[in-house]
Amino acid sequence: MKSFINKLFSFVDLILASPQLLLFYLSSEKEVILADVRRWVEIFEWDKGSDIQNLLFLTIKNQEFRNLYYFRIAKGNLPARLLLKVIKFFYKECQYLLLDLSSNIGPGLFIQHGLSTIIMADMGQNCWVNQQVSIGYKDKTGRPKIGDNARITAGAKVLGNITIGNNVTVGANAVVIKNVPDNCVVVGIPAYIVKKNGLKVKEELV
């Protein structure tokens, strides 16, 4: 009986989310959207069938994903962008998460607890961002460029015209205003390197 009720609720969720499919099928951004879906499903360790089913579950159950989905749609073709204005009226955006449309964000971005998070940057693929993170401009000189597989953890600030390399982890509440090389972990205010290529170090950023 419990299994039947769970399946019934899941079916109702799919019906409620079904208008989101119109956005998907109209959009020119299908490939990157599906890459996002697969990454989120992998992280959540779901086993819920097709990519389309997972897309619907994510859009109705996870506001952070919904914002990312809308970001992808808004970067695409005109018909989907026009429909997005209607869809947003019924399926609201998460107001405490900002993905700036000037940003270029690679596939597979995962946003965990996007409370008070701002992303204004160019990012590679398969990045991970936590809550209360600010990534963006420090002044008029430019915004961050972040490589693949970067992880920006809770409360961190990444500011200015800097480059964050591939496979970098920015520790909680760190403030990064200088370039970070590949394969590093940085912490502190201002941030410094505590691990580089798997080895413990203590190096200032330059």
Automatic annotation (TrEMBL):
Q: Which domain of life is it from?
A: Bacteria
A Pfam family per the record: Hexapep
Mind telling me which InterPro entries this protein's record contains? Answer: Hexapep, LbH_SAT, Trimer_LpxA-like_sf
Keywords for this protein: Acyltransferase, Transferase
Cellular component terms per the entry's GO annotation: carboxysome
Query: What would be an example GO MF term here?
Result: acyltransferase activity
Q: Does the keyword NADP apply?
A: no
- UniProt record similarity statement: Belongs to the transferase hexapeptide repeat family.
PANTHER family xrefs:
SERINE ACETYLTRANSFERASE
Q: What is this protein called?
A: Serine acetyltransferase
